[in-house]
Amino acid sequence: MSDAIRITGLSKTYAAQGNAPAKEALKGIDLAIPTGSIFGLLGPNGAGKSTMINILAGLVNKTAGKVTIWGFDQDVNPRQSRAAIGVMPQELNMDPFFTPRASLEVQAGLYGVPKSERWTDELLALVGLTDQANAYARSLSGGMKRRLLLAKALVHRPHILVLDEPTAGVDITLREMLWKNVRRLNEQGMTIILTTHYLEEAEQMCDEIAIINHGQVIIRQDTQTLLSRTDGKTLVLDTGGPVTLPPLPQGARSEIRPDGRLAISYPPSRLRADQILDVLRVAGVPIVDVATEQADLEDVFVELTRD
Ligand code: ADP
Ligand code: MG
């Protein structure tokens, strides 16, 4: 199957409640997520990411549109489409009286996984909760609860794993454990969809990225193409003190940074660094040190989601 998930014309309007007016959270989303990819769903707070993920998970009812998961139309084959996907939600919602082991067993029961096909102990080991297997969930730390949520998402061995802000507010050790596991699951063939606030993380982890804003997909590209969108590089020069600048080649812009260094931005598609450096050298501008900076996903994101 080439697409693990296919979404067409997906809309969601939350009904008005009390003083809160109705909210159109998704406005006709079209998106295909390739099988085997690590797919990043990015967007500012309130963009509609969790709404979309919760619709995929069958937790929120859509207002309009079509969702096909692993070839199964969500409305025609709800059971099969649910079985294909495992979701680690953004919210920590769990029964405080269940132990991690019991939580996993209950979840497996909900998904109709026969006892002989359960992999509770392996899952507990995978997320590093073997020692806490029989502790009450309410005694677990926030990080342990998140790890339990990951294990719960995996009980039925889904083809697709969805992680909603899995690393928001978690410490670096947990983050690394999480990404190691996600990479390994992906290498074993699982399609991964994740939302994250950490753009650097998305840049490193995701093969493809969709950015959504105000309930619409504003761009969807493979990560490398997305990164090359901003045609911008910056030369940062230490000139050893104030200098008088010569006219720079067309397209180059200069500014003095607060630390006194001279920053010259230029479009690498049209200008080369040595053309700029030559002009400076000919004009007798001393160059004590040079560094270059490249636009990253953060720049692309800011540019695209600026209102
Ligand atoms: P994101 O995950 O990208 O931050 P959400 O999907 O959580 O965005 O929210 C999208 C919009 O829908 C926001 O304006 C949010 O306030 C609204 N929203 C989310 N859940 C509900 C709900 N249960 N009822 C009403 N409005 C909601
Ligand atoms: Mg969210």
What's this model, at a glance?
The chain is an alpha/beta fold.
CATH class type of the domain at 1-84 and 191-227: Alpha Beta
The kinds of small molecule bound in this structure are: adenosine-5'-diphosphate, magnesium ion
Number of strands: 14
Overall pLDDT metric: 91
The helix/strand class is alpha/beta
DSSP strand (E) fraction? 25-35%
Largest sheet data: 6 strands, mixed
First-residue to last-residue Cα separation: 37 Å
Describe the global form.
elongated
Order of helices and strands: EEEHEEHEHHHEHEHEEHEEEHEH
Keywords: ATP-binding, Nucleotide-binding, Transport
InterPro entries: AAA+_ATPase, ABC_transporter-like_ATP-bd, ABC_transporter-like_CS, ABC_transporter_ATP-binding, P-loop_NTPase
GO molecular function, one term: ATP binding
Domain ABC transporter: 5-239
